[in-house]
Write a structure and sequence with these properties.
The chain has helices at 12-23, 35-45, 54-57, 74-81, 98-107, 123-133, 151-154, 172-188, 279-295, 303-322, and strands at residues 4-8, 27-31, 50-51, 64-67, 87-91, 112-116, 140-150, 191-199, 211-218, 223-230, 232-244, 247-252, 257-262, 269-270, 326-327. By secondary structure, it is of the alpha/beta class. The protein folds into 2 domains: 4-110, Rossmann fold (3-Layer(aba) Sandwich); 120-268 and 303-327, Dihydrodipicolinate Reductase, domain 2 (2-Layer Sandwich).
């Protein structure tokens, strides 16, 4: 029988999870309080089971549960379903406060918890991380990340969804920059401190920031890092460069490839494109979620990883508001 997965939340990201779990052979049900959306998704994906309330969904047993609701509801929804499954895939960010983080930690013992930082599943990320671990470019000294996209084109409903408020997980820090905070720590090690500057510059009808710049240090101050992101520019591009004593590595996510430039080389050497479509990453994440349950091994992005990213989110918001550098103090 196909493994039964429950997706909680029928927005665009919940729909993507649903589709990708179906693609890897799972039987998927959906829980959403919006009756029209629930019916629309049920028809589109021929779902056998849907639930209008989380209380009804919690009466069933599930092989795994995907939490794809606004981040301020994550802890509440995990708590409601804690007796119904042994495994959760929680969308990013994990939650919005240390109080909810502690609540999730109290629920975690005996459960498999994965956090949805999907860039970890990109083959270019994994390729570069392997080369870093092998010491190919020598000691890592610097990481720079630049990214941007036209959010109104990609998510035209942004004014009406979680994005419009920090209290529901909105703004560029918690929406897009958090992926880069996690990616930086995945590649270069934990951030020690950051200074963040953010602003609302362009997106209409919201007051949250759409532009974020941070600088900071990783690994006990050894690695200098910077991230610059906005959500209004025309190209949809994300570029990462890691500079070491012997050479440099790079990822161009918009080109789906990784590169290397060693001292003495005439130029960059690039891989072929490693991903065909964005769903490839979510299918890989879904497969990792299933494998982590079956093999009882840590998922690629653990609860502790999610807590570290949350700590950076909170520090970035404080720093951007107060204009002071913030030490990163993640819950352990």
């Amino acid at each position: 029988m196909p493994l039964e997965i429950l997706v909680v939340g029928g927005g665009s990201i919940g729909e993507r999870h649903l589709r990708c779990f179906q693609d890897i052979g799972c039987s998927v049900a959906l829980c959403d309080s919006n009756a029209a959306r629930l019916a629309e998704i049920a028809e589109r994906y021929k779902l056998a089971r849907t639930f209008p309330t989380i209380e009804l969904a919690a009466r069933e047993n599930w092989y795994g549960v995907v939490i794809a609701t606004p981040a301020n509801l994550h802890a509440e929804h995990v708590a409601a379903l804690i007796k119904s499954t042994d495994a959760f895939l929680i969308e990013k960010p994990l939650c919005l406060s240390n109080e909810d983080a502690r609540r999730l930690q109290s629920l975690a013992p005996g459960k498999s918890i994965q956090v949805g930082y999907v860039l970890r599943h990109h083959p270019a990320t994994q390729h570069v991380r392997t080369l870093l671990a092998e010491g190919v470019i020598g000691k890592l000294h610097q990481v720079t990340i630049t990214a941007g996209q036209n959010f109104p084109s990609l998510r035209p409903a942004y004014r009406d969804i979680y994005y419009k408020s920090h209290q529901t997980g909105g703004g560029a820090v918690q929406d897009a920059a958090t992926h880069l905070f996690d990616l930086l720590q995945h590649l270069a090690g934990p951030l020690d401190w950051i200074f963040c500057d953010y602003a609302h510059q362009e997106l209409a009808d919201v007051d949250v920031e759409d532009t974020v710049h941070i600088m900071g240090r990783c690994c006990g101050g050894r690695v200098i890092a910077s991230i610059a992101l906005n959500q209004f520019m025309a190209p949809n591009e994300t570029q990462v460069q890691l500079n070491g004593a012997l050479g440099s590595l790079a990822i161009r996510f918009h080109e789906q490839r990784a590169g290397m430039f060693m001292l003495g080389d005439p130029g960059w050497t690039w891989t072929e494109p490693l991903v065909v479509e964005r769903d490839d990453l979510f299918r890989a994440q879904a497969q990792n979620f299933i494998s982590s349950i079956v093999k009882q091994e840590p998922p690629l992005c653990t609860l502790q990883d999610g807590l570290r990213a949350l700590a950076v989110n909170l520090a970035a918001l404080r720093s951007g508001q107060n204009r002071f550098a913030e030490v990163i103090d993640a819950l352990s």
